[in-house]
Amino acid sequence: MLRYALRSLLGRKVRLLMSTLAVVLGVAFVTGTLVFSATLDRSFSTLFDATVGDVVVEPVAGGSPRRPEAAVPQSLVEDLADLPGAARADGRIRVIGVYVVGTDGKPVGGFGPPALAGTTGDAPAANGTTGLVLVAGREPRGLGEIVVDDVTAARAGYEIGDQVPLVSAFDDATLTATMVGLYGFPGGGSMNGASFVGVEPAVAQRFFLDGADAWTTAWVTAAPGTSQAELAAQVAAVLPDGLRAVTGDEAAADAASALLRAVSFLTTFLLVFAGIALVVGAFLIVNTFSILVAQRSRELALLRALGASRRQVTGSVLVEAGVMGLVGGTVGLGLGLLTAVALQALFAALGLDLSGQALVVTWTTPAAAYAVAVLVTMTAALLPALRTTRIPPVAALRDDVALPEGSLRRRGVLGVVGVAAGAGLITLGLRPDLPGHWWWLALGVLAVLLGTTAAAPLLARPVLRALGLAYERALGTVGRLAALNTLRQPRRTAGTASALMIGLTVAGTLAIVGASAKASVDATIAETFPGDHLVSSAFGAPFSTSLAGRVAGVEGVGEVVRERLDRITWAPVSASTEEGTEEGTEEGTEEGEDLPVAATDADDADVLRLTVLDGAVDLAPGLAVVQQALADERGIAAGDTLDVVTPEGPATWRVSAVVEDNPMIFADVLVGTGTYDAAGLLQQDWLLVVLVADGADPTAVGAALSEELADQPTVTVADQHAFAAAQREPIDRIVLIVYALLALALLIAVLGIVNTLALSVVERTREIGMLRAVGLSRAGLRRMVTLESVAIAVLGALLGFVLGTVFGVVLMRALREEGLEVVAVPVGQLLAFLVAAVVVGVLAAVLPARRAARQDVLTALASE
């Protein structure tokens, strides 16, 4: 029986090719995602390991200091170098906000990965590893000389000796320097899209620490035989208040943790689409084996008559599936490496550049490839294989053998029950007060999808009959034959259409979510847009305070309102009571957690169009305004106090008001500039709100502002319309990426239609010969097969249209608490999916129709 199964598989290798291809594509996406994720993880780990010393000395609060008095003094670095467990100590300066402007006039990087600047030097990284060091040219000396990391220099189009323009978020907004060297990772590694500009230590102290003989951090290198923990204990013993010692391993892990969590989410995101592709592929495999088993019914009955047991016959079908899975897993594994390279290129275009990091393939990747491939194929083939046990041996004596079919009514009942149960779960999932409501929503959507799939053969009948009437009226007998052929095997037709339905359901849901998100953004901006123009960073980063003066000097500008942004350390909230102050009881508040803080002048708060929910807005020194999301999360009300730790030390701010979430406030807490400056926070602007003077033309003023800031490629000037368009761009980008990922599932669905039609043509060889014999032309035969394909595609598209619309609206209802309150259904886009389905049906029928038309009539009539 094993030899029979293998010979049977080889005898039908062309028929199984497209089913195997579906497995290959799904497995390739899974393995490509795993390889890309492992590569990304290794790249981040290597990068952060190379950016810390054995022990790192840093400020306790506020991260990298911006004031000389909060920095690590040189005298302390010298003392650290004399510790018994230290081999050396090096002061380091690292800041964010210095961009290289390329030869095309555009800044390099900045979209996510930071634009770093700091000191050069040969300080060894933790555990003796080699960090970012000079790989070409020489070290910079004095003012006007820099080094740049080799990837950024190549992307910007500069070579050693060129003049490189820089844009800075510091006082000197525009600089030009000579590039005298290149930095890189000689042992292999990647900046992951970040850029680095290095200067001589004295120059870095002058520009970034006002000339103080100090550093933002210090690296202490362990002497031979001294562990990081032992050295950290020695360092901590001599540190003054305000500084702390962290082992290099801890510092690297802390710095990488947030990014690695994002990598984990990215992996899950990609694997979801790989799963969709595999589910769609499973439909193709089920259909393929169902048709093949049906076509071989007499052959399998003969095996039973010759003595083969039911288990042996079933096993022969499963052996074929297992071999197909192994082949699909092997080819998919190889193709997965190419998929990982493609993912690298895709995310490099989005700013996450992994050039220099070799692909990482762990043992789990091939294990997952074969496990997924074999599991999917064996599971998909199980039901058709079990149906072989219902073939009686006596069936071999009949000319026409058909596998017994289960009741469509029973499937319809199961489908209705599934849809009803899913609707109930979705109703629970729409209650945000219910714990785990997102899981209820997801289970409900899954139940509705499975229920619709189960009931699809019954749902297909009215749709196919309606199409049949249209076909018959338009094309006569050919149209009627096409309609009858699709109704002949409703399970087969519905199964093939269900594969396309799943892909279009996700596409339709995404279309509604994307359109609704953009409509919500437009509505929110229309309500909250302050002033006439906004000046902001194109990268969502701070920019030089010197720009505000330039903006204020533009003719027609009436007023300029600044908004600044920084992070401090959060401490538990206290609530003021009549008896005094008592600790709040909100959950999840831990000392040391970051708290974003924005600031504006107290007299300008009204310009930001704040909607007060509790209290009254007052930004006098020591007072703060809290946005609704944080207030709800922490149970904060007007009159409560916020205990925080700033670079100047502990502070207590009283909450004057709780306001509705406002997208123009880029932090959870808003304070006045007096409070902000007293805390010693970052003196860089995040947003400038420009109000046009009375009588001035806003359009003309906007043009003048753009001209004034033309030398600042990292900064944009936008009115309300342009700002809304800029906020919609990331949504469009995400939607396009998801559509690209969905294309794989849709391709497999198209292969399913092609495969079903091709096998159906083989199954109806004699019937086709009879039709040709009674006068059906080749063109008519091609038209008939094409109409069958279009009917399958339209059925899948209609089901996907309905489910996608329902799921999209439900998802937007669930996201209402997140601020996405507008539900927009892009009817034109959804109708375009239907039109595309017709095109897909026509294209999918090309090869099967051509094969049917080319059959010899006499040969077809003589076939069994």
From TrEMBL:
It is a multi-pass membrane protein. Its main location: membrane. GO terms for cellular component: plasma membrane. Residues 572-594 are annotated as: Disordered. Residues 17-237, 493-706 form the MacB-like periplasmic core domain. Keywords: Cell membrane, Membrane, Transmembrane, Transmembrane helix. It comes from the Bacteria. It is found in: Cell membrane. Residues 579-594 have a biased composition (Acidic residues). The chain crosses the membrane at residues 269-294, 315-347, 367-386, 413-432, 438-460, 497-517, 736-762, 790-815, 827-847. GO terms for molecular function: transmembrane transporter activity. Belongs to the ABC-4 integral membrane protein family. This is ABC transporter permease. It comes from Nocardioides bruguierae.
